[in-house]
Amino acid sequence: MRSFLITIDTEGDDIWSRPSSIETRNASFLPRFQSLCEKFGLKPAYLVNNEMANDRGFVEFGRNLIARGAGEIGMHLHAWNSPPIHPLTSNDSWYQPFLIEYPEDEIRKKIELHTHFLEDVFGVKMLSHRSGRWTLNAFYADVLRDLGFRVDCSVTPHVDWRSTKGDPDGAGGTDYRAFPEQHYWMSERNIALPGTSSLLEVPMTIINRSPDLLTRATQACEGISNLPDRARRHVWPLDWLRPTGSNLTSMLRILDIAISQNRPYVEFMTHSSELMPGGSPYFPTVESVDKLYRDLNELFSQAAKHFCGSTLTEFHDRVLLSSCSDY
How far lies 110's CA from each of 103, 115, 132, 254, 321, in Å? Predict the structure, then answer.
């Protein structure tokens, strides 16, 4: 049975505006989303960062989720405000540097501290993970394996994040264009290649709908570093299984493609703050969030006909069992 994976980057309100002080009002809006998932037998993975793990309302929500087996709590890390604090730029709250831009000893400290904090708060081992701002490198992956993580979902196939800056003097994000579209056991030597490590990579579901010629032409424009993110999404014709408020048709088309290609999973994502009016630039009003929920109801309804709801760790276990049965 194909798996429908729901991943929620569970973080503070409107991180896009780069606030110096972060609120977590969106935590109170998550029960509505969880109820919709349960209506269709779907099991979200809430990938949690520092401020949300300190929100009492979300902690209660997460513990209840775990107790009922209705979803999963995993790890998500925003390096600039996740302790131990190590200033990297003149204004980390504004620049939001990538974790991979920090010294390796600081990277390890941040991952270890946040992982153990989440485990203490929620009383379960952290097994699933997504990096903040979609950046990953080999050292980061090594630390995740050392800490017993089983599954990562940071890879965004077809997407080159190098023109997206953290540290303004840095090299930008990770270039994922050569990475696989489908899940793979990540190589310890090269995170873009399948290997034999214990970490399963489950890339975000992103469909490249451009002809080869258009792909080459748009890639030739990758040096346009000042192109706004929204404009960039029109230049590079990629369909994400991620709601924008106006892309229900393309999300339903992704389901059809996955079924026709016999893909073992599709991975949906959104941010917890996008489920709250004004929590993001994409859903600023009550009406826009209500429209989002109408779209999600249709998407999840169609998904439930052809996919089973799985957490990231359940999908990992299914893949592992399948791998063992091949021998």
Answer: 11, 8, 12, 36, 32
Length of the chain: 327
Q: In whole angstroms, what is the distance from residue 47 CA to residue 134 CA?
A: 13
**Per-residue pLDDT tens over the stretch 60-69:** 999 999 999 9
| pLDDT band at 213; cut points 50, 70, 90 | very low
Pairing assessment for the beta strands 128-131 and 72-77 based on DSSP bridges: parallel
* Domains along the chain with CATH numbers: 2-325 (3.20.20.370)
Task: Tell me which amino acid residue 188 is.
Answer: E
Class of residue 209 by CB neighbours under 10 A (exposed 0-12, middle 13-18, buried 19+): middle
Confidence of residue 57 (pLDDT cuts 50, 70, 90): very high
